[in-house]
Amino acid sequence: MAAQGGFPLNVSNAWSGTKLIINDISNVEIKKLKDRPKSLVWLTVVKGPTCYEDIKFVDGKVQDSFRDACFHMGFLNDDSEYVAAINEAKDWGSGHFLRKLFVTMLLSELQLSDTELKNLTLIEIENMMQSNRRSLHEFTCMPYPDSYVTKHVGNRLIYDELDYNAEKEQKNFEELFHALTDEQLAIYHAIMDAVNKKRGGVFFLHGYGGTGKTFMWRTLSSALRSQKKIVLTVASSGIASLLLPGGRTAHSKFKIPVPTLDNSTCNIDKDTDHSQLLEATDVIIWDEAPMSHRHCFEALDKTLKDVMSKKGFQNAIFGGKVVVFGGDFRQILPVVPRASRSDIVHASISSSYVWEYCQVLKLTKNMRLRHGRDNTSSDELAKFSKWILQVGDGKISEPNDGLVDIEIPKELLISNFEDPIRAIVDYTYPNLLEKFQDVTFLQGKAILASTIEVVDRINHYILDLIPGEEKEYLSFDSIDRTDTTYNESYEVLTPEFLSKLRASGIPNHKIKLKVGTPIMLMRNLDQVDGLCNGTRLIVTRLANHVIEAKIVSRKNIGNIFYIPRMSMSPSDSPWPFKLIWRQFPIIVSYAMTINKSQGQSLDSVGLYLPTPVFSHGQLYVAISRVKSKSGLKILIHDKDNSPCSTTTNIVYKEVFEALG
Ligand SMILES: Nc1ncnc2c1ncn2[C@@H]1O[C@H](COP(=O)(O)OP(=O)(O)OP(=O)(O)O)[C@@H](O)[C@H]1O
């Protein structure tokens, strides 16, 4: 606080998963304004080189500097918008990113000492961070609120996991339990027996999409939560975690380091809030496990053994906990850059030592088709679903060991076209020029392709086609040479060169957008609010330093969010130096790569394959995004744009051997 000389909060690396948008904040100061008795708290935020906010609260109202900041950042164009924004700012419930920075406690009527004020402010910041599993403890330069843990919430992480209404959970459980099929019931009992015996157990629940895995997770978690037991529900991807009750990504929940190596452990020290949570946990549910590298499961195993060693479980697999994995081995396996077939298979959970302890449970009945309200006849749906599974199992054009050409059913093909891109766009987005801003029209559609180059071509084509002012955002690039020795050749690393580099997992140097463009987030910004890697949104407004967009997938549909720029670098750099991008963490998603579509549920997919798939499970994932046959069309052509009816399918059958 200014009265005490101030305390700069250096939180420049605290981005991921926090409610405070603090990635680029180089300095946060909380000051008491001495001369104005009723104006107690200012939060001054300095963000990066190009934008800043100076947000002032006086008597609980946002004052003029906020107005100036809004204009400066391009949020607002005129005074009427300002008035509307102020009215909106009174609604603290929604997710305006500026509002999340308003660490104010409307203290105007309270008589507090500087120390009390400082402590209350710190508690407020800590609360925000804890709701996203972060803490001020992570920043050594930061003060910590006095008596925060004991006086306020105990171990917040444990508290949150027990903060379920047991009666409500019991009611949920009863409804779900009575609906279980025989197959599901047997699985439920197998897992609950292990929980009740308290001797641990590792399970793998294998089932293709629609067989009821999520239904099982819901039944198990409500059973356990109604008994006040702790169940941690995680998924390998952000988008899948949104379907789990209380779900998070495994990386954030278990603090798994990136990249995860052979000898990695979770970033959880003994006798911390996190380790106490793991100790108190009864069951861990981990969905989409085949997508994660085996090193992630091994890191969790080592950490749980360490945490549970004081109870004598240092040699028990996963420290003697009940762990239930789930997923489908037909889908895309862990992505290992520049890897061979054996590298990829070797990275899978089934190649890990933890697999030896896994009891495989199988769901085989498609519950989605039984319960679907689709108009397509059930016979046709069953036939379509069987074909998808045969592609996934590699049972078409056998023997299919690895790579094989398969014939696509005629009725799924688009074969009458002159310009293939135009044809796939016309099929997937019919009457686009009339409906290009219609959110319901856009939200369930996507064109899928195997490579980033093809995806970029389609996205540019559509952006050029639709009317409206286009805004171009360029990234700031820089090179981090701290880990490399100087080399003369680095002098050729000009900005022009850097801006042409492409890497998966980071956005393009140049992003072009129009209002109405569908985009996909590439980072987990706020899992509580449903802003995950994979969340789809539609651009509603383009300002100079921020993009306003509306969520259209999964959780919090319709909510508006502001997406800021952030610093990113590829976790596995293909170059001998580390590149850092400062760019919006998004990609345009009229078209997207098949890998990005994993976990998405879509109504209409145009699969465009001028270049075939190149890895296990990609064709299966692409054709299984839709729930009905009428939602899928495939366009394949050769180098001369002549239509083809065959394409490559890749299935590494050795991964299925683990299932017995
Ligand atoms: N026993 C059941 N009784 C009634 N409905 C069920 C049952 N099991 C599953 N369902 C319903 O079937 C549909 C598919 O189930 P669910 O989403 O759990 O499958 P999934 O295996 O998780 O699929 P995906 O991997 O595609 O997410 C859902 O609508 C679910 O509510």
TrEMBL record:
Belongs to the helicase family. GO terms for molecular function: 5'-3' DNA helicase activity; ATP binding; hydrolase activity. This is ATP-dependent DNA helicase. Keywords: ATP-binding, DNA damage, DNA recombination, DNA repair, Helicase, Hydrolase, Nucleotide-binding. GO terms for biological process: DNA recombination; DNA repair; telomere maintenance. The keyword DNA damage applies. SUPFAM superfamilies: P-loop containing nucleoside triphosphate hydrolases. It catalyses: ATP + H2O = ADP + phosphate + H(+). Residues 496-542 form the DNA helicase Pif1-like 2B domain. Its cofactor is Mg(2+).
